[in-house]
């Protein structure tokens, strides 16, 4: 075990949290950046010959494509993390993410190379999704296994603080560069933040090279070696299928929150209300700053009152607040727009995000933990977040610009997530959920009461 809640963090634990957070920073940097660009840049750079609504839908379709590769990446890198080591998986994924993101920034526009431009965009987006698919499971597992048991929620939430930094970096760069001449921004300016993704990858690679596997992981590997057993992490996850299914359903509300409010929301403001995109980018940056500090507070709260309560409260909050959020977006008042972003995402969305990765890690035993987290997190993000901007755009277009179908869509997802959270099996005290599967008579790690 990693110690009690009052045990000071060791140097190894601090490096592990930093190494996990930098990868999550990269994951969210890549995806927030792509989401912002797909809302305001890609429709006019890569889909120039189409009707504006069709161009927006096409742009959001490429956004969704990346999510469909995330479960594949999760199934590839999850078993690597559980069988070879969390560190190995995390080193590979961070390099892949950096190369894919930089590649997007180097694609010539459709006006220069025709259909090859959107095809290259789809290719790099798929690569981005594949490598991101292996990121959260490894990072969450590594951090949670090293954190003190009574503070796993708080330290796991630092991963979402990394996401907040990514929010600030991606939105800040886009907002700052967007203040320059529009022609320059649409030609070169938007590309700079994407190419910088490679620099982030190098920094993350250096930090992760110093990571060490947790004692919990080493104990399980030793027990399996003593028993002569080589586990199959995917089989282990579905040997107890309830949590695999619940993990997917639990993740749905948090997966749509950011992409409905901060990605579709910006497109809605730009297309429906003619609001300059930079105002949405700046609001996203404000949200990111708050997220850095709010996420650990929610994580600490989950350590004290339970992760279920915090997450379910986030589900209920998002279902209730999404309507007033879009009412504020419709005012065209800059301060009210930013208030809407805070109301719709920081209050309920961060509550869910800050507790999800720790809760998922506590739903699976160490020999299949990375794989289990990846399956729940990535499939829910594909079905939820990946499709959310496209679904919301289509729903609003279908009813002539009204927002009520989006509110209903969000409410249904939140109800599903809340019910799944209430019924999942979660180990909050560091004990195993199931006996380690070994041959009869061999040494084994058993479930503790």
UniProtKB/TrEMBL annotation:
Transmembrane segments: 31-47, 53-77, 89-107, 113-133, 154-176, 188-207, 244-270, 276-298, 310-329, 335-356, 377-400, 406-427
Topology of this chain in the membrane: Multi-pass membrane protein
Compartment(s) where it occurs, according to its Swiss-Prot or TrEMBL record: Cell membrane
Domain Major facilitator superfamily (MFS) profile: 16-429
Pfam families noted in UniProt: MFS_1 (PF07690), Sugar_tr (PF00083)
Keywords linked to the UniProt accession: Cell membrane, Membrane, Transmembrane, Transmembrane helix, Transport
Protein known as: MFS transporter
Organism: Promicromonospora umidemergens
Lineage summary: Bacteria, Bacillati, Actinomycetota, Actinomycetes, Micrococcales
């Amino acid at each position: 075990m990693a110690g009690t809640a009052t045990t000071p963090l060791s140097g190894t634990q601090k490096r592990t949290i930093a190494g996990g957070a930098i990868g999550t920073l990269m994951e969210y940097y890549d995806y927030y950046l792509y989401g912002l660009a797909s809302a305001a840049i890609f429709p006019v750079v890569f889909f120039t010959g189409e009707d504006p609504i069709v161009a927006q839908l096409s742009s959001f379709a490429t956004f969704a494509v990346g999510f469909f590769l995330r479960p594949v990446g999760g199934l590839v890198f999850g078993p690597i993390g559980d069988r070879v080591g969390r560190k190995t998986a995390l080193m590979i994924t961070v390099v892949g993410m950096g190369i894919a993101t930089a590649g997007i920034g180097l694609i010539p526009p459709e006006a220069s190379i025709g259909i090859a431009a959107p095809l290259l965009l789809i290719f790099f987006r798929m690569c981005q999704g594949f490598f991101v698919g292996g990121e959260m499971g490894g990072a969450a597992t590594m951090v949670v296994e090293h954190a003190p048991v009574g503070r796993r929620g708080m330290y796991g939430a630092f991963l979402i603080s990394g996401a907040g930094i990514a929010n600030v970096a991606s939105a800040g760069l886009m907002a700052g560069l967007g203040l320059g001449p529009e022609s320059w921004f649409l030609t070169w300016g938007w590309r700079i933040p994407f190419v910088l993704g490679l620099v982030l990858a190098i920094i993350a690679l250096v930090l992760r090279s110093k990571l060490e596997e947790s004692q919990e992981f080493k104990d399980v590997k030793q027990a399996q070696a003593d028993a002569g057993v080589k586990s199959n992490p995917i089989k282990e996850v579905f040997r107890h299928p309830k949590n695999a299914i619940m993990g997917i359903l639990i993740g749905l509300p948090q997966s749509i929150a950011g992409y409905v409010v901060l990605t579709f929301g910006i497109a809605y403001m730009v297309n429906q209300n003619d609001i300059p995109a930079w105002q949405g980018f700046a609001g996203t940056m404000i949200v990111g700053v708050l997220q850095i500090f709010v996420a650990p507070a929610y994580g600490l709260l989950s350590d004290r009152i339970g992760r279920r309560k915090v997450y379910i409260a986030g589900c209920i909050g998002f279902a209730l607040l999404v309507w007033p959020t879009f009412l504020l977006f419709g005012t065209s008042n800059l301060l009210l727009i930013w208030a809407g972003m805070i109301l719709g995402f920081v209050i309920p969305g961060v509550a869910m995000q800050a507790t999800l990765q720790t809760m998922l890690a506590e739903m699976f035993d160490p020999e299949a933990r990375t794989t289990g987290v990846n399956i729940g997190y990535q499939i829910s993000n594909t079905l939820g977040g990946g499709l959310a901007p496209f679904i919301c755009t289509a729903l609003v277009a279908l009813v002539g610009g009204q927002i009520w179908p989006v509110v209903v869509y969000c409410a249904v997802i939140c109800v599903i997530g809340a019910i799944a959270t209430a019924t999942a099996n979660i180990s909050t005290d560091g004990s195993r959920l199931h006996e380690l599967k070994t041959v009869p008579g061999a040494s084994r790690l058993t479930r503790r009461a």
